[in-house]
């Protein structure tokens, strides 16, 4: 099931969701088997910010009946730490590398995008826009105008594909997707987690940061709706994700118009969940006609 | 591949002694599930994994009845391995658990012949006494409740290497006092809060007595138990200048560094991920063993 995404050749349509598989930590736990049996056809890094971040205070996790709420807070080494410490290790992965980046303004985003895109090891960038613009106070990915303005500023900086990670926490994700496309995005990916705030019986917030985002099977049909809406509204490719645990779930997202599918929370339950999902998807494709959007 | 903390600083400890796991989750078969003083000792035959190092853990998921009915549990549960017996057909892994929440409840009712998915062994194991303190005369093991599990396998490892060890185990009451059979053939002193066995009071009382009699210069302490007990051990060892390693717990979704959920603050700044930089931490590397969220079911 070879797939092409913004000019990047993928061996199959299953990639990882940003922040749900740390390939470097996985090699500490599982050794070089991670390279030999890498389950994703492209690797999306955890989000990199200009300066290092320690992340949110614990507790950071909450289990739900069909999923989990996380409030991690984007811990990362910052741009310099990533370029020196992580990029050489990630370049050893046997698949194209997509680096997720986030900043709080176009001026802050620009050096991040230029530095990361300037490295030959990097095939594409994913823009995490679920962060407030320090100038306007608005969450960039929740506002079509903010998204278009950011894309207009960043588009001239690189010829490499720019993928905009859309938030589900808006009334019309398609409106933001259209803005991203008009601003020059090469693809969009969705859904990110859904805002959630688990609490104890007395109403006390459980998470150290107060609230977080829901993922897992609980969000699957929400993802299907949003992916279908977005895919119908734009011409550029859509990377679909949300609650994918089985091959049929991936097939449904491809059928809804996604060009590739990302696996996230399922990898927490089984580090090789994506390999199983791919195998199940390929078995489905043998049994029935390929859904649109796959080669 | 470095052992760097989330924020880029160097994590405490090294990767020395860590046994790497087969990539992915695999099926084992439950061969025994025994009641033990209010706890359960669940033993499974792992046909494909390497024997673990003491202090490492596994992520466990029952093959059936785990998230399939739209109810919790959804995520796997992390358990330190309490015993590992290699044989011709695989490694028999024993886990000590208490039925306190949806995950442990499902695990506690597993019957022989049922499937148990596991990922592991994972994490950083205990360090030999002489690596922690060149003048170490032996090891003092301090366990509380089901926290005795990793100390049981560590005791056997130490005994196999001819390293002297003394064990101090504390329990809340008779209904929470299992797993002692994992310590057979060992010199053990007991404490219980209800006085049903050994010293009436805390296991840390016994530790304080032992450290008062010992030279701190030759002692090394290994501890695992509830957060309040671990914090008492940490504070006592810091006060006496005794080197200690603590096997800790924190809520975690994955066990292999992917979810970043098991953050524990460290003295060097920021957080480490307990699953890959622990679960065994050098006591001197943390301000407190009272991890936010630990013990939640």
How would you briefly describe this protein structure?
Chain A is α/β, with parallel strands linked by helices and 295 residues long.
CATH architecture annotation name of the largest domain in chain B: 3-Layer(aba) Sandwich
Task: Identify the CATH homologous superfamily of chain A.
Answer: Aldolase class I
Low-confidence stretches of chain B: 1-14
What would the CATH topology of the largest domain in chain B be?
Answer: Rossmann fold
CA gyration radius of chain A, whole angstroms? 18 Å
* Proportion of residues in helical segments of chain B: 10-25%
Shape of chain A: globular
Termini separation of chain A: 6 Å
Structural class of chain B: alpha/beta
Largest interface: A-B, 54 and 54 residues
Q: Briefly, what CATH class of the largest domain in chain B?
A: Alpha Beta
> Which overall shape of chain B is indicated by the principal axes computed on the Cα atoms?
globular
**What's the helix count of chain A?**
10
Features of this protein?
heterodimer; A: alpha/beta; TIM Barrel; eight-stranded parallel sheet; 14 strands; 18% strand; B: 297 residues; alpha/beta; Elongation Factor Tu (Ef-tu), domain 3; Rossmann fold; 2 domains; seven-stranded antiparallel sheet; 30% strand; disordered N terminus
Write the topology of this structure.
The complex is a heterodimer of chains A (295) and B (297).
Chain A: E1 3-5, E2 8-10, E3 14-16, H1 23-30, H2 33-36, E4 43-44, E5 61-64, E6 67-70, H3 78-90, E7 97-101, H4 106-117, E8 122-128, H5 144-154, E9 162-165, H6 173-182, E10 187-190, E11 194-196, E12 212-215, H7 220-233, E13 238-241, H8 247-255, E14 260-263, H9 265-269, H10 273-287
Parallel strand pairs in A: 3-14, 4-7, 7-8, 8-9, 9-10, 10-13, 13-14
Antiparallel strand pairs in A: 1-2, 5-6, 6-12, 11-12
Helix pairs in contact in A: 4-5, 5-6, 6-7, 8-10
Chain B: E1 26-36, E2 39-46, E3 57-62, E4 77-80, E5 83-87, E6 90-97, H1 102-108, E7 115-122, H2 129-132, E8 139-144, H3 149-160, E9 165-171, E10 188-192, E11 199-200, H4 203-213, E12 220-224, H5 227-240, E13 243-247, E14 263-265, E15 271-273, H6 274-277, E16 280-282
Parallel strand pairs in B: 8-9, 8-12, 9-10, 10-11, 12-13
Antiparallel strand pairs in B: 1-2, 1-7, 2-6, 3-4, 3-7, 5-6, 13-16, 14-15
């Amino acid at each position: 099931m070879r797939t092409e995404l913004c000019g990047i050749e993928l061996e199959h349509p299953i990639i990882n969701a940003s922040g749900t598989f740390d390939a470097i930590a996985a090699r500490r736990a599982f050794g070089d088997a991670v390279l030999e049996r890498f389950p994703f056809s492209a690797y999306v890094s955890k989000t990199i910010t200009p300066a290092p971040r320690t992340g949110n205070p614990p507790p950071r996790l909450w289990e739900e009946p069909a999923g989990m709420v996380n409030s991690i807070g984007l811990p990362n080494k910052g741009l310099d730490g990533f370029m020196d410490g992580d990029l050489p290790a990630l370049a050893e992965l046997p698949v194209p590398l997509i680096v997720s980046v986030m900043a709080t303004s176009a001026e802050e985003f620009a050096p991040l995008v230029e530095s990361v895109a300037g490295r030959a090891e990097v095939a594409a960038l994913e823009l995490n826009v679920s962060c407030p613009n320090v100038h306007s106070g608005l969450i960039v990915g929740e506002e079509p105008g903010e998204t278009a303005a950011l894309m207009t500023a960043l588009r001239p900086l690189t010829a490499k594909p720019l993928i905009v990670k859309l938030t589900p926490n808006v009334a019309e994700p398609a409106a933001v997707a259209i803005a991203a496309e008009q601003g020059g995005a090469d693809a969009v990916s969705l859904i990110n987690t859904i805002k959630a705030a688990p609490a104890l019986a007395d109403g006390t917030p459980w998470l150290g940061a107060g609230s977080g985002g829901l993922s897992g099977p609980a969000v699957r049909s929400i993802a299907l709706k949003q992916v279908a809406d977005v895919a119908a509204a734009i011409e550029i490719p859509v990377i679909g994700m949300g609650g994918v645990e089985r091959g049929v779930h991936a097939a449904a997202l491809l059928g809804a118009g996604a060009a590739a599918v990302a696996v996230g929370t399922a990898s927490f339950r089984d580090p090789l969940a994506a390999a199983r999902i791919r195998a199940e998807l390929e078995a489905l494709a043998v049994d029935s006609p390929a859904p649109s959007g796959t080669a | 591949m470095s052992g760097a903390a989330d924020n880029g600083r160097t994590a405490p400890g090294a990767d020395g002694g860590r046994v790497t796991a087969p990539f992915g989750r695999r099926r084992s078969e439950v061969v025994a599930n025994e009641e033990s003083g209010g706890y359960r000792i669940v033993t499974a035959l792992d046909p494909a994994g390497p024997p673990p190092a003491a202090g490492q853990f596994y992520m466990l998921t029952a093959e059936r009845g785990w998230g399939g009915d739209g109810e919790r549990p959804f995520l796997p549960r992390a358990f330190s391995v309490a015993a590992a017996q290699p044989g011709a057909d695989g490694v028999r892994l024993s886990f000590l658990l208490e039925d306190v929440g949806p995950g442990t409840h499902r695990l506690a009712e597993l019957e022989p012949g049922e499937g148990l998915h596991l990922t592991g062994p994972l994490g950083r194991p205990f360090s030999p006494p002489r690596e922690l303190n060149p003048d170490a005369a032996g090891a003092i093991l301090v366990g509380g409740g089901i926290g005795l599990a990793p100390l049981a396998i560590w005791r056997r490892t130490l005994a196999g290497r001819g390293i002297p060890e003394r064990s101090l185990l504390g329990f809340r009451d008779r209904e929470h006092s299992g797993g002692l059979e994992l310590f057979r053939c060992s010199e053990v002193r007991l404490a219980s809060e209800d006085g049903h066995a050994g010293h009436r009071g805390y296991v840390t009382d016994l530790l304080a007595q032992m450290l008062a009699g010992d030279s701190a210069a030759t002692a090394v302490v290994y501890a695992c138990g509830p957060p309040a007990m671990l914090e008492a051990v940490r504070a006592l060892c810091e006060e006496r200048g005794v080197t200690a390693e603590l096997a800790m717990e924190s809520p975690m979704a994955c066990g292999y560094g992917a979810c970043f959920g098991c953050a524990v603050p460290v003295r060097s700044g920021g957080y480490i991920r307990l699953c890959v930089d622990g679960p065994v931490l050098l006591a001197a590397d943390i301000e407190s063993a009272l991890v936010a969220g630990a013990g939640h079911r």
